[in-house]
Amino acid sequence: MLIDINLPHSKYEITIDTLPNLTFDRKVLIVTNPKVGGFHLKYLLQKINAKEIYIVTLPDGENYKNMQNLEFLLDRCFDHRLDRKSLLIALGGGVIGDMTGFASSIYQRGVDFIQIPTTLLSQVDASVGGKTGVNNKFGKNLIGAFHQPKAVYIDTYFLRTLPLREFVSGIAEVIKMAVVFDSEFFKWLEINDLSEDKNLEYAIKRSIELKANVVSQDEKEAGVRASLNYGHTFCHVIENFTNYSTYLHGEAVAIGIIMANELAHSLGFLSDDEKQKIFNLIKKYNLPTYYKVENIDKFYETFFLDKKSSNSKIKFILPNSIGSYIISDDVNVDDIKKVLEKFTDIYIEND
Amino acid sequence: MLIDINLPHSKYEITIDTLPNLTFDRKVLIVTNPKVGGFHLKYLLQKINAKEIYIVTLPDGENYKNMQNLEFLLDRCFDHRLDRKSLLIALGGGVIGDMTGFASSIYQRGVDFIQIPTTLLSQVDASVGGKTGVNNKFGKNLIGAFHQPKAVYIDTYFLRTLPLREFVSGIAEVIKMAVVFDSEFFKWLEINDLSEDKNLEYAIKRSIELKANVVSQDEKEAGVRASLNYGHTFCHVIENFTNYSTYLHGEAVAIGIIMANELAHSLGFLSDDEKQKIFNLIKKYNLPTYYKVENIDKFYETFFLDKKSSNSKIKFILPNSIGSYIISDDVNVDDIKKVLEKFTDIYIEND
Predict the structure, then answer these.
(1) Could you say which of A78, A131, A144 has the minimum Cβ distance to residue B106?
(2) Distance CA A12, CA A44 (A)
(3) pLDDT in tens, A149-177
């Protein structure tokens, strides 16, 4: 199964299938982490033929996606004397993909890279579209580049070793895609179970189709691509406050979706019924739905570190029904704080 | 006087004239160093109108063009809450321009920047063409990006405070341009004196025209742009060995040109007469012409860290006459080492 990305300066294919045999007449550096490497490196190496193959292992986890590890990776590229024709391969989740992509965009002013995502989250979202980068003390993905991969190979075989919690985290991005773009897909998600292989493959395919369509229209997020950040404006603040370690990204996205929906609802965009439907779908997969806001003003201030905010305005992506959204950068500060107020209690699991 | 750069994704103007008045409806961050800022910040601030203006000062010198100072600059961008619509302005020489350009290419995945070069070297070469980056322990400009400025403003007023040694260093890049592309310009340089204002303006204009023409054909150095690296293959090794501190960049380029000419001559490309003419022009400006190679094998090995080398081949730009060159990546190792042998004596000034 093939999906194309078509950009003026770059075209590439996303393959959803068993990983093909790959032959390269150049040096290849595979970037992975100890866990993924332990499970899957052997499988990958059986499929790859190259002039020289090197392997670099980075520590596992979002809080290692920083400049320090980026420099470590770049130094290994120099150690192995990679040149401008060499290729980097990211074997792992979003952290490995983002760091490998960013390193390949600035190593000697740019070399090629390939994405082989091994988590559901990176298969349905992060591996497609060329956003690369690292986090820093100011926030998430604040240093980075748009650098498209040469190919993306999605093989659900890799998901067999994925812990349930990480698998479920990926579903949050699938739900995001459905709410923003596709009410039919949302209905399909309500009645189908993603633990079944054929359903999972369909959900991956549909999510990537929706994303590929957006990226092909607006690579650098001048307009429509911002819609993919539904739930992420809140999510990034939560991740920042919890040092990228309490929640998996998809978990924070799930909470961010709930918060964005509260805002959309309070502004009269999203109906009570549809807000509940989205809540129920998130609950179906036991994703978290609540984060206790300790300090409303501090939470609010942290929005401004988001890349989407500009001229001191925060950009919110707000569903006005399932499958449709508006982007607003002039939500009143009081309206925002009133919504945050709802998240200041000790959490009590509700319906 | 205007020169255009035309790239598929980017067009911009290079103005060679008194710095115009500039008005921006966005936040502006000016990056400079203490010396240049001391001389010229006031002049620049008189010309700029913007929503908010911030100033960041980086230490002066090629050995500060590293990741550490890049991160310092990025942190200041966050401190001042620059957003994706903000603008960085580089006020300084190549170091300031390269670092500001690189920071603007990766800050929030890319913001605009403007070059206001204050050295001859950056006016005739570095500020044009979008090469940005930093050095590291493996070599020069090895981490970076292609990121075109939105405009380049060249005002020879800034050169009045430039130390003679730095001024002369810039002439090496002018000579490089003439040798590679334009024998008429070379002849003009032989008979005219660049200490005269009108001659200097012509030399700047002609150098930029030649560079703009090459960059417009080949932004990312897939082909013809490599010619601009005439002299630089040797230069980068010398700079590496001397920790970027013994020579100014143009001085190391001058020596690199002499070495490249020796190689071109020994391979039968460049005549004795033309080799001497280039030597004489370099001598006319008291640029250095000799670097003592301590260890031929180590010098040779260090070529391979150059970005231009790939698949274990070193790319040399070799003039076959003045105004014409060949690019070769299969020069015999013995031929290279024989040329390096000529540079192993204690230096005795000759002509």
Answers:
(1) A144
(2) 20
(3) 999 999 999 999 999 999 999 999 999 99
Express each pLDDT in A80-108 by its tens digit.
999 999 999 999 999 999 999 999 999 99
User: What is the rounded distance in angstroms from the CA atom of residue B80 to the CA atom of residue A289?
Assistant: 33
Task: Supply the CATH number for residue A175's domain.
Answer: 1.20.1090.10
Residue A49 has pLDDT above 70, yes or no: yes
Q: How many angstroms separate the CA atoms of B52 and B66, rounded?
A: 28
Domain boundary residue, one of A141, A161, A181: A161
Q: Which whole-number Å values give the CA distances from B101 to A18, A26, A327, B96, in the listed order?
A: 42, 30, 31, 8
CB within 8 Å: A84 and B310: yes
Rounded (10°) CA dihedral B34, B36, B37, B40? 160
**Cβ-based burial of B350 (10 A; exposed 0-12, middle 13-18, buried ≥19):** exposed
| Range of the structural domain that residue A40 is part of | 2-161
Q: Is B337 a catalytic residue?
A: no
Nearest to A96 by CA among A26, A149, A157: A149
Of B9, B74, B85, the CB nearest to A310: B85
Considering chain A, what percentage of its residues have pLDDT values greater than 90? Answer: 88
Identify whether B80 is a catalytic site residue.
no
* Whether A120 and A247 share a structural domain: no
Collect all residues from B whose CB is shorter than 8 A from any CB in A: 8-9, 26, 67, 71, 74-75, 78, 81, 83-85, 105-110, 131, 133, 136, 138, 141-146, 220, 304-305, 307, 309-312
ipTM: 0.90
Q: Using CA atoms, how far apart are residues A227 and A211, in angstroms rounded to an integer?
A: 10
- Could you tell me if residue A350 is inside a domain? no
